[in-house]
Amino acid sequence: MMTIGDSPLVQLLSSALVRRLRQDGRGAARIGPDSDLIELGLVDSQALLDMILEAEAGSGWMFDAEGMDFESGVTLRRLAASFAAPA
Amino acid sequence: MDHYVAENGIAPAAMGMPDASDGAAAFSAATLGMLFRRSALRHAGRPALWVDGQSITYDELLAAACPIAHALVAAGLGDGTARCAVLGGRGLGDFTGILGASLARCIYVPLNARHPPQRLARIMRDAEAQALIADREHINEARAVLEDTPHPVLVLLPDSPSVPDWAGGTRHRFLCGGDLPDAPVTSLPPGNSADGAYLLFTSGSTGAPKGVLVRNRNVMPYLRSVAARYAPGPADRCTQLFDLTFDLSVHDLFLTWGAGAALYRVPDNVRFAPRAFVHRHALTMWFSVPSTAATMLGLRALRPNDFPGLRLGLFCGEALPKRLALAWAAAAPNAVIENLYGPTEATIALTAWRLPREQHALDALPEVLPIGAPLPGQAALPVTASGTPAGEDEEGELCLAGSQVTDGYWRRPDLTGQRFVRFPWDDRVWYRTGDRARISRGHGLVYLGRLDRQVKIAGHRVELQEVEAVLHRAADANAAAIAWPLGPDGLARGIVGFVGTCPRPDDALLQACRDALPPYAVPSAIRRVSDWPLNNSGKTDHRRLLAMMEAEPCHRT
Q1: Residues B247 and B432 sit within 8 Å (Cβ to Cβ)
Q2: Residue in chain A nearest B268 by alpha carbon
Q3: CATH 3.40.50.12780 correct for B16-265
Q4: CATH no. for residue A57?
Q5: Which of B18, B94, B181, B412 is most deeply buried (CB count within 10 A of its CB)?
Q6: Does the predicted interface ipTM exceed a cut of 0.95?
């Protein structure tokens, strides 16, 4: 798994999210890497899938859904931590 | 008539399922309330519901719902016709509220707290709901709804210790947890099959939601059919994924509880990759819209043998692509997989089709899977434009008849007259679905698309005219909405709004949509069109708008 810190993946995911929110006419000022995107109603399943696919395309890494604990919340940091380099 | 599709009487044994006779006793009840009463008495100490990490037994659930029911009855609302709104977000309070209303012979009206307050208040007004149940978590949403509700309402706050400060200045009467009467379930009225069960509001093409009242005489035949077909029993553990404003949730709740089984409210976060949740709770029955499976597949969270413990996988609410069903079959190799079909007007689902196991049969399937044949006692038939039954392989509008077909739209005789009709060749009332279908010799009924502009977004019905009405008001200009883009499985992923020349910025137009429409119906983008396309009749040419999208797609992110 990738080390987070200032992970480029967090940045990629964050950029995708902010673009989407702006397109929807919504601000992104209060969204941090640990904000729960589902709880806050910021993304639906399709938007989440789009964000992940965009981050995969931008990073060349693959998202591992089974490596993520969705029950603890869907955050940018958790999503980024579930990307792995292709085998 | 020989054109009718034969009743679908597949016996449980033929499906490799256990015999339902032991668990099916509750399904002979006349009402949802009586079904739960019988089951709760029989399965008192067994788990009935898992929600937010908490497991609740049948007797605990009954104990929570009974005071609500008695309060409604004491207020004179237990007559089978009064309406009680239940506001929330699939929490424990929603389940106890629905049960409380059902036990009291009240018609429940589910309200999703995430929908715009003005839309919820409109539903309160249109339903003329005499009562509202809300849990503590949604007290602010309740306030917003009640402020715009002109008629007096009995407000039940079962888990609130005291009446909120703002309640005093309103026209409504409030009762908190301690105010609710403590009395046994046996003193509640039993009800009868003519009682209303629930009143749901769906998207309306005139720009406002329209209501469908489902009576117990409509919903109980459905539950008896699926109880016989799927043989649920006390050992089953069933998913609860649907929003409670979606009638498929009625299947979740009352099929599970009628069987003495346990219902697992799947958290919103988990639906993207539910493997660990399904394993941990040893779930046996799955029911979702195909879009949920599509998201799982997109995230690579639907892999072969991911769900070996499931014995049943049901899909409903939108067209089921073959690719998705095959992926699901590989992930749940021990499950019977079925595609259900039905509009709210005909109560949850009226036809069913089972995925075969044999490779040669799978190879012969169309890319969008069939919807099969009617449940027992129901009828489904494509009817041609001239009003005659369509012949084999002939396309027609799918019309439905039988005990599941409701009386019509709530206080809309005009609309009811258009959609609930009689034909000279039959004495029953038929509901015209607006779906195009044909009967195929090999597959039964096959869905071919819509006759009108209704679309499904993640299984939710959206009349595009309702979105257009909101956009038109906000922009004061030409406005249109199209479903876009279609994903690889042919499922619409969202809606794009088009407006003509208009000074208001996109943000303002989208905010107007968010204020009036449920989240799934809000456009994901606005396109400006200076040269508005018109067809030969002088109306908006939606095909040309679609062509614009294909030539220059919107990017969602």
Answers
A1: no
A2: A38
A3: yes
A4: 1.10.1200.10
A5: B94
A6: no
